[in-house]
Design brief:
342 residues; DNA repair; Methylamine Dehydrogenase, Chain H; mainly beta; single chain; globular; disordered C terminus; phosphoprotein
């Protein structure tokens, strides 16, 4: 597992539980430390493995760079430099015909870096305009390798086809076109900054979160607001918020940082299943490991916690006559709210 810190350091962890104990500590295999000549100068905002080969990974930082790393040597293979602070980047998990890295920066344009041509071409001239403020989150569709979603501080979420000169396919509208274009909130996704987005595993829907404390689910083919109500989803992050969805569960879940906890919702009903408690400072990011049905969360308390599914939950202490755990149907293939986990 890759992790990036606010100090610019990148650490690689071995996730194997060699102890076979229920509670264990993952070992750090190696790191790009403060003394490394190519270490990021400021906070690392995003790290990602090259989707087809773990021999390479990428990182981006507030130091205005995107770096491509050789995993074996921990040396940079390429560096892309930007004029603005970098908030987020993403490589397509399904692309076979391009090696584009989408980058969101403090500028209002979506920027694309081509790993095939390298930094000699710097940043592609195809920079899509359309947003009015900084781009806080970017994500490629897992369904179509040319479709890119972007979220901005201008309250808008856009879907792009990077093959098209005009670029923009859809600007989603929280009102589904039912309000006049003269209304200030027309063609906006949220009533505040949109600082996180995530496609569902099949790519048919897109989830977004905003500083209006709302999460919304969109049809990714036509941009329709599905109007699923998740209630208040606390979000006071000043930068990108990285949340994730489950893969391979009988019901699909979304995991969202919520203060010092992680809120778990069923995607299509909006029901809040549980709150995962274990961190003691704000959670900034979480990622799902589908092979083992595990969730990992990173927090400002300097800890990364691993969460595993639990099919049973403890019986309340006030019932002294009952000693057995009871199966909670809501947690079949799902998640336990036990404070002991993590």
């Amino acid at each position: 597992m890759l992790s990036g810190g606010s100090d610019g350091v990148i650490v690689l962890y071995d996730l194997e539980n060699s102890s076979r104990q229920p509670y264990y500590t993952c070992k750090a295999v190696c790191s790009v430390g403060r003394n490394h000549p190519d270490v990021h100068k400021y906070s690392v905002e995003t790290v990602q493995w090259y989707p087809h080969d773990t021999g390479m990974f990428t990182s981006s930082s507030f130091d205005k760079t995107l770096k491509v790393w050789d995993t074996n040597t921990l040396q940079t293979a390429d560096v892309f430099s930007f004029e603005e602070t970098v908030y987020s980047h993403h490589m397509s998990p399904v692309a076979t015909k391009h090696c584009l890295v989408a980058v969101g920066t403090r500028g209002p344009k979506v920027q694309l870096c081509d790993l095939k041509s390298g930094s000699c071409s710097h940043i592609l001239q195809v920079m899509f305009a359309g947003h009015r403020q900084e781009i806080l989150a970017v994500s490629w569709s897992p369904r179509c390798e040319y479709v890119l979603a972007t979220a901005s501080a201008d309250s808008r979420v856009k879907l792009w086809d990077v093959r098209r000169a005009s670029g923009c396919l859809i600007t989603v509208d929280q009102h589904n076109g039912k309000k006049s274009q003269a209304v200030e909130s027309a063609n906006t996704a949220h009533n505040g900054k949109v600082n996180g987005l995530c496609f569902t595993s099949d790519g048919l829907h897109l989830l977004t979160v905003g500083t209006d404390n709302r999460m919304r689910l969109w049809n990714s083919s036509n941009g329709e607001n599905t109007l699923v109500n998740y209630g208040k989803v606390c979000n006071d992050s000043r930068k990108g918020l990285k949340f994730t969805v489950s893969y391979g569960c009988s019901a699909e879940f979304v995991f969202v940082p919520y203060g010092s906890t992680i809120a778990v919702y069923t995607i299509y009903s909006g029901e809040q299943i549980t709150m995962l408690k274990g961190h003691y400072k704000s959670v900034d990011c979480c990622v799902f490991r589908s092979n083992f049905q595990e969730l990992y969360s990173g927090s400002r308390d300097c800890n990364i916690l691993a969460w595993v599914p639990s099919l049973s939950e403890p019986v309340p202490d006030d019932d002294e006559t009952t000693t057995k755990s009871q199966l909670n149907p809501a947690f079949e293939d799902a998640w336990s709210s036990s404070d002991e986990e993590g």
